[in-house]
Amino acid sequence: MMANVNMNTQPWTDPKEAIVNLNNLISMVEKLQNNTKNDLNKANDNTPLTPIALITTFINYIEKDFRKQYPNHSRPIGFDYWWQDNDGTRLFGIVKDADLFVYLCDAKRYPTKLENFSIKSDPPKRLPPQFTVVIKFVNNNIETDDIREVLKNKYNSTFTVENMLGGMRMNNRHIRADFTDKKDYESILNCAVIGIQGQLFDVDEYLPAPKILICTKCNIPGHTKTMPIFSRKVQTMWRCPSLLDFRRRLIDELRQKPESLPAEIQFFIPADCRPKGNTNRILSNTIISCNEENVSTKCIKGTNMNAWPNLPVADTHTKAAEQMMEKQLTMESKISNFSKELAELKQNYIEDQRKIEQRFQEQIKNIQSGWIAIQNQVSTQNEMISSTCDLIKDVLFDSCEALMNMMTSIIQETKSRMKSEDKKEKFESMDNHLKLLLSKLNDKKQLYLQFQDQLNQLTLRQHTAALTTMNSLFSSSNNE
Q1: How far is the CA of 473 from the CAs of 361, 376, 378, in angstroms?
Q2: Predicted TM-score (pTM) of this structure
Q3: For 296, left (φ over 0), alpha (ψ -120 to 50), or beta?
């Protein structure tokens, strides 16, 4: 986010130094509250805002719309870290909340003008890994714009679609896709494949490259080289041998000088650092006076929501009450989570039932379309068979019958002109033989026509029965 105003960098105080001295802590909190109030008052006087006042005003501006977009988000919102560049015209913020990060990725949600100066937004171009999927081994002849169009038509929350540089090969490559809606992200992962231009490609979750730490002193993975004792960096990995030795020496030093511990601190002693036979697991300051233990804290005035909370007083009853309150809050949180989980399971069950019903209706429509195609094919085949039968009837039977009649006429005419009795008898025999063949041909023709009529009636009954069955099936499924 960049603002066209001059912003002064605020002095930073080490939190460790503030905790050591209670008076310094209280004065620092009061100063911070006064500076914030003064900054907000200056905004009304057309005076440039300081960075912290600008951040506060920006969060207040987007909070209402953010709560509307994410109604289940109950945690407070804000930047975990932020800083200002050297020229004082640009602010950078780090957000660990995934919902807030996704919300801020949309440039339309930034104000163009805040108070008395302009704002130019520069939102992130990619979403976190929990909103990212990878489409694997996509052919290089498929353009990225075509893939983007397919995803946007199917998933409305598509944010970014781009090639993965590390997954590009000679014939194919990997595609990275971001989704602002968690439901679309889970839906495409559950499908595991996506169809693009008639081809199916595998879809998998996006896993960032693992960050492996290797100690340069002991060559054991999982941590880095231990810093010196007085270094400002804190090492949290406890597998390095030199770090384990340093921890033992530090606990021995604190055991010998317990007065160096603050009054409200109870230091836990690990099992490997306890002397044999000593079951004491807590190290605390037992020398400090009672008056110093019960130091009263000043009451911080003001109703600012960003004000620091009061420091706890080392009192037994107060600690017991706080523990009871924490247990109660924990139980309430668990009950609330159970209710949300039950509602989510119910919603998922309803959604699965809807998807099953939708798939069933689609299958019924596909079967109905196939049945209509089969009907058309059967009608076409019946028409072809009928035409073939008519052709056989005309060509075979009728033509043969006409030819035999013509031959009979010729034989009779020839017979009448013959004078020799032997030749007349010969033609008479031929005439009788043709008459027998003609009679046989007529019998075959009648049998053929009768068989064709029976087949047509049977085909008609089969077609009617199949049509009635399928219509009743489709009508019953539609009524359901």
Answers
A1: 13, 19, 20
A2: 0.38
A3: beta
